[in-house]
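Quick illustration for those who missed Monday's session on complexes.
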Amino acid sequence: MADSNNIAENIRQIQQKISDCCTQYGRSASAVRLLAVSKTKSAELIRQAYAAGQKDFGESYLQEAVGKIHALEELDISWHFIGAIQSNKTRDIAQYFDWVHSVDRLKIARRLNEQRPAEQPPLNICLQVNISNESSKAGAAPEQLASLADKISQLSNIRLRGLMAIPIKADSLQQQRSIFRQMQQALNTLNTHGHQLDTLSMGMSNDMEAAIAEGSTMVRIGTAIFGARDPKPA
Ligand SMILES: *Cc1c(COP(=O)(O)O)cnc(C)c1O
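Prediction with pyridoxal-5'-phosphate bound:
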């Protein structure tokens, strides 16, 4: 388990691991971005990660995130929303974040588009895919992607960048890879049909290698940087 007293060292080790995986699977190390998932972690810990060179942070709980975004306003951080989205939260998400990885229906995309402040650049969006077909899981079904992507790409205040998934736990590297490969194929299919998507948000502390092997461009790492998660905010 990562030691939360040494965040700079944890980040260094993850960056090394990313770069080793890139070498092993024939990818350019600059092609994979590290998103540090800081949900439940304090602004002070985020500050330490930032001092170690980390610029992208992922948050899942809106209220908690907005407090930290205010507290860290002077830092040049890109904030990524990766949590479940209820309709009544879209206004704050559209205002405070640079990226949203967890869009899984048109209604949410339309609201984010309407609520994105005009003076800000378009909000970067990934469509979350229920790639393991779990009945309880968030995410669009793979067969809905083409239609969703076509509609969302018409919206001018958001910019569709790619796909995101949180697959079910798999035992082996090969099983993990076969699921991530389906994500890569889904992205390729959309691009074949005229989209220009450049982002595969996939890979967490436990399946990063498989995700990088299959084309991930953004790995979302929490516990391996910040240690075990604290309780969810109430
Ligand atoms: C919490 C979370 C992560 C980070 O998971 P770790 O296993 O701690 O690396 C990544 N993605 C999403 C969507 C999350 O909610």
